[in-house]
Amino acid sequence: MRSIRHRVEVLKAMAHPVRVQILEELLKGVKCVSDFEEFLEISQPNVSQHLSLLRRFGVIDYYMDGRLRCYFLKDPIVPDLITLIKKDYIKELPAPACCPVTKKGKYPRERRR
Amino acid sequence: MRSIRHRVEVLKAMAHPVRVQILEELLKGVKCVSDFEEFLEISQPNVSQHLSLLRRFGVIDYYMDGRLRCYFLKDPIVPDLITLIKKDYIKELPAPACCPVTKKGKYPRERRR
DNA sequence: TCTATATATGCAAATATTATTATATTTGCA
DNA sequence: TGCAAATATAATAATATTTGCATATATAGA
C-alpha cells in the first residue's frame, strides 16, 4: 500500500491548477512541452518546472523524440483522480446522527478521559 | 458543479500528512480536538490550526458539545478521495504504444508546427 | 465567583512554493 | 561546423504555508 508520504505527494502534485490542466491534457495522449505552451498561459520555463515536479513525484515520465520530450502519464491513480475531482456531488455528507447543533449535545461515544 | 479551482483547493487542503491523518480518522466518526492530540505528534494549537484550515476550505465542520468541538466530515469528496489514495495499484499505466525509448521515435500524432 | 479544562487565536520565524528572468544544454539540419 | 529550435536549469524574488509559542476565550463545575 502507498505510504502516507507517497499518498500526500500525489495529492500535492495535483494541488495546482496548472498541473491539473497538464494532467487532463496528458489523459488525451502524449504531449511535448511546446504543446502545453499553446494552451497554458504561462512561460516555457514554468511549464518545464511543473513537468519536472510531476516527474519527480513519479506521476509522469517522458521519452525523447529528437529534440522533443514527449511526456506521458505514468501513475495509474491519475485518471481515477481526475474523474473524481470532476464528479458532481449533489450534497454534503449527512451530519452525524447525534449532531445536536445546540450546545447541549452528547459526544457520540464515551469520552476517554 | 464545483469549479476546478475549488476542487484544487480541496486537494491542497488534503495535501499535508497531518491533515490526511485527521481526515482518515474522521472517516471513522466524530472526533474532538483532544482525540487528535492522542495520536498526532503535534501540539494542540497546531491541531487546531489544521482543523481550522480544513474548515475554512469547507472540508469539515464541527458542532459544540459543552467545551468540546466535535468535528465531522462535510465535503462528500473526502471519503472517495481517501479510498482512492489508499488503493493499491499493481502497475504503472502502459507506456504509449509508439514509445521508442531510443531517440529515433516519431511523435504519435502529426506535429503542429 | 473561581478554577481547571478544552480549544482557539495572533504573531513571528522557518520553510516551501511559485513565477520570472537569464542562461545553458541538446539536437536537427543547412 | 554553426545556427536555431526545444527544452532544462539556476538564481532570484515574491508570496504562501507551516510551526511554535504565548495568550485568549469559553464553559463546566466547585
What are its keywords?
12% strand; alpha+beta; Arc Repressor Mutant, subunit A; homodimer; three-stranded antiparallel sheet; 113 residues; disordered C terminus; DNA-binding
Question: What can you see in these coordinates?
Answer:
- 2 copies of one chain form a homodimer.
- The first copy, chain A, has 113 residues and is an alpha+beta fold.
- The first copy, chain A, has one domain: Winged helix-like DNA-binding domain superfamily/Winged helix DNA-binding domain (Arc Repressor Mutant, subunit A), CATH 1.10.10.10.
- Helix content of chain A is 47%, strand content 12%.
- Chain A has helices spanning 4-14, 17-28, 33-39, 44-56, 77-86, and strands at 31-32, 60-65, 68-73.
- Chain A has a 3-stranded antiparallel beta sheet.
- In chain A, a hairpin with a 2-residue loop joins strand 2 and strand 3.
- In chain A, helix 3 crosses helix 4 (44-56).
- The longest helix of chain A has 13 residues, at 44-56.
- Chain A is elongated, with a radius of gyration of 20 Å.
- Residues 99-107 and 109-113 of chain A have low confidence and may be disordered.
- Chains A and B meet through helix 1, strand 2, strand 3 and helix 5 of A and helix 1, helix 2, helix 3, strand 2 and strand 3 of B.
- Chain A binds a DNA duplex (30 and 30 nucleotides) through residues 16, 32-34, 42-53, 64, 66-69, 103.
